[in-house]
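>> received
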Amino acid sequence: MLECKVKVININLPQNHVILQKCRPLYEYSWFIQHIRRYMAEGVGQDAAIIHAVKDCEKENILAEFMREHSSEVINMLYTQFNMEDALEVRYEEGFEDGEITGAEKKLVELVCRKLAKGKSPKTIAEELEEALETVTKICDAAEKCGSCSDADVVFRVLQNI
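>> returned
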């Protein structure tokens, strides 16, 4: 079995890690990113913050040669990276919301199944759970297709396929 150990180093400027003192390009990159963050914290839009930081690099001779040769690529790459981070955050939030909805639906199926097992009618169950009769009836129909309410997960899967 192969084991890999990784040491993560925070290269943000405020952390002032010793590696930043030993590696000038890494320090300059960190300086550049710090300036983008500072501009954004001051309320400057993301695109403008990147452009301002590139100009700051040119003025301060930070990543100078690299910026002269590749500034447009840097701007495009960072714009894409920040947009990807935004997209991933939205995706996470949507996934979380989907999970909450699915969890609530599974819980409802479980409750309906318990009440069905006790011999209660769909109408009574709907009233007790304060759910729409149509919703409870669909769950009851799915349970009937399963032949039993003993496994609410199976009923939930059947319900999803109806």
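>> The CA atoms of residues 43 and 61 lie 25 Å apart.
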